[in-house]
Amino acid sequence: MSSNYTADQIQVLEGLEPVRKRPGMYIGSTGQEGLHHLITEIVNNSMDEAMAGYAKHIKVEFLDDGSVAVFDDGRGVPFEIKKEFGVSALELVYTKLHAGGKFGGGGYKVSSGLHGVGSSVVNALSEWMRVVVIRDNKTVIQEYENGGKVTRPVEPLDLKKPTKLKKAAWNLDLDSWKYESGTIVQFLPDKTIFETTEFDTKFFINQLREYAYLTAGIKFELIDHKNDVHYNYYFEGGIKAYLQSINRNRKVLNEKPFYVSRVYDDILVEAALQYNDSFSETVLTFANHLKNSEGGTHLTGFRSALTKTINDYARKANLIKEKDPNLSGDDLREGLTAIISVKLDSATLQFEGQTKAKLGNTNVRQAVDTVVKEALEVYLDENPKDGSAIVEKNVLALKARIAAKAARDTVIRKTALEGGGVLPGKLADCSEKNKEKTELFIVEGDSAGGSAKQGRNRETQAILPLFGKVLNTERARLDKIVDSDKFKSLIIAIGAGIGEQYDPEKLRYGKIIIMADADADGMHIMTLYLTFFYRHMPELIEEGHVHVAVPPLYKGTWGKEKKYLFDDFERTEFLKTTEGKKAIIQRFKGLGEMNADELWETTMDPQSRRLKKIGVEDAAKADEVFTMLMGEEVAPRKRFIQTHAKQANIDIT
Its Enzyme Commission number (predicted)? Predict the structure, then answer.
């Protein structure tokens, strides 16, 4: 047996080979999320210059050739020769793993980088890259291709012969970048590595806006030449302004936001919070300007301080009776908007994984707990009106939690969620029990539900017809939701529970697919279901289970041939073809007009259907949109409609 395993099987990957061999280890995935991470790594290097006080302007530019360039007016990467290596420091930074100024050598005190792999990883996963450095009255360039191989060593930039890359033309506009120092990094992602090389600029519009809030006084710019858009962001109010921006479409309870900024044990803790009259929570956490989507020790410290301080204040002010229970952490989350940002020595920074989704420094918990607790005590004493409004909100949440628990116990415990009940009568279940293979279609309308039941794959596809518009859960507490007939059936069918009872192990279907008509009413119904999932079963979205079916709008037939057309653009393009000119075009007014075969062929067959997977890349932006479109405040919704009216597809038939 051992003779099959010899020294010949041992491989040594040198240079940047490990990155190309296992890109997921460095950027998380080779999908669009990983693709976006490339830009984030380079932008974060510029952000480190900004936090160190050297950069005031950061620009991200998407070029027509599919490449992206990141500019900053910082100090510029050093390009002198590193004697012990015999090559320039610039080349080391962009071609060697674990090379950079973030290991305690005096380059950066506070930075986002830990391992010195960001720039070189981007180079490794690019078809080509170029770096332009402006420093010490000199402008130099270095170029790389095929995963980080040096094509052009460091040399003065001559715009008359600006590139030695075979695949890349020169397309950077340096005339408009007039700074005396800085770094420009341009790269083209390698299409042999990534599943897609199409950037979603909306992601970076949100990211740069967020960075602008986190680094007050720094200008951020985004230019997208393909879509002809240009954004500039500059804020002086920091996270306090960010907090007020998130809550601008809501009715706030404490008009004066809580805010603190203080250094504790060499850690700068900055926190802001404000309550609103909604039932949802928005809490954003950052460490050295990086968003920690999974929270970490700073979030733990914040929650601990908030729970203890609010309870102490409520008892002292006699806002909670002696016999009443303490407010729980869950009670304090209802209507809470908070931002916690910490900055600490990058040499001590600990994240879980290269993508830095969760902060791990244990000393940060104590720092945040202490700073927030002491400042919040003062805030509540000095602002008794705001303090009372917060506690009243929390007490209502406590009462609603007790009511919701009672409602869940009576509604759900007798069902299949606890193993002893029956599934909803309207549910046509599937025979397969492995949730990795099963799908639940939430179908609007009895007619469409009937066609779906006839046309489905009975082994793997379950159908739950729900007729009519459902409760708007943006403005409803959990006790009302679980008592609603439609949501009761849906919760029972999904099987994983809701709220505190949610258990992913009990989930009965791997895909939950909302299937509604492709008209205004259908879109409204779909939005109501998405609001429910986003507000009350967010784990389903976070884990990638929620999808939206995309039915066709038209069917073209000519002779014995047919073609389904999913939108007006496809219809227009089809009508230009030889077949389209002789075809009869039928407009589907709803799913109920399709027979079982058509519904299967166009919307349910995994081999031919179109599905949109629902995800939330920017929770704050999604929260804002849901609040604006589904909340009680009319003015923000009216402004949104007026602003976007020209972009709407209006069907008058």
Answer: 5.6.2.2
Mean pLDDT of 103-114: 53
Length of the chain measured in residues: 653
For the cut 70, the answer to whether the pLDDT of residue 114 exceeds it is no
87 and 179 co-located in one domain: yes
What's the whole-model pTM score? Answer: 0.69
- In terms of Cα–Cα distance, which of 501, 398, 514 is closest to 445? 514
| Residue 318 Ramachandran class (φ > 0 left, ψ -120 to 50 alpha, else beta) | left
Based on the fold, state whether residues 109 and 225 are members of the same structural domain: yes
d(CA 466, CA 476): 19
Q: Cα–Cα distance between 144 and 132 in angstroms, integer? A: 12
Tell me which H or E stretch contains 130: strand 126-135
| Least confident residue range of 350-359, 383-392, 467-476, 622-631 | 622-631
Domain boundary among 233, 258, 291: 233
| Higher-pLDDT residue of 88, 307 | 307
Q: Which two tokens stand for residue 263?
A: 């250094």
Write down the pLDDT at residue 108. Answer: 54
- d(CA 115, CA 117) in angstroms, rounded, equals 5
φ, ψ of residue 585 in degrees (nearest 5): -100, 125
Same domain, 562 and 532: no
Q: Is the CB of residue 376 less than 8 Å from the CB of residue 254?
A: no
The pLDDT tens digits of the residues spanning 158-204 come to 888 878 888 899 999 998 999 999 999 999 999 999 999 999 999 99
Rounded (to 5) percent helix, strand, coil in the chain: 40, 20, 40
**Domain shared by 206 and 127, yes or no:** yes
Q: Identify the band that residue 398 occupies on the pLDDT scale cut at 50, 70 and 90.
A: confident
Quickly count: other Cβ atoms within 10 Å of residue 7's Cβ: 5
Kindly state the DSSP code that residue 600 receives in the 8-state scheme: I
Q: Are 521 and 651 in contact (CB under 8 A)?
A: no
Residue 310 near residue 327, CB atoms below 8 Å: yes
What is the DSSP code (8-state) at residue 276? B
Per-residue pLDDT of 488-512, as tens digits, reads: 889 999 999 887 778 999 999 999 9
Q: For residue 235, give every residue at least 6 positions away whose Cβ sits within 8 Å of its Cβ, in sequence order, or none.
A: 212, 213, 216, 241, 242
> Which amino acids are annotated catalytic?
444, 517, 519, 521
Whether residue 370 sits in one domain with residue 256: yes
CA 530/CA 508 separation, integer angstroms? 19
Number of Cβ within 10 Å of residue 32's Cβ equals 18
What is the identity of the amino acid at 20?
A: R
Cβ atoms 76, 134 nearer than 8 A: yes
- Rounded CA-CA distance 287/570 in Å is 46
Q: Within a domain: residue 382?
A: yes
- What the block records as the tokens of 21 is 């061999």
Which CATH number belongs to the domain containing residue 277 in this structure?
Answer: 3.30.230.10
* Spatial separation of the C-alpha atoms in residues 651 and 567, rounded to whole Å: 11
How many domains, in total, are found in the chain?
A: 4
Q: Which is nearest to 194 in space by CA: 350, 34, 322?
A: 34
Domain extent, residue 558, equals 554-587
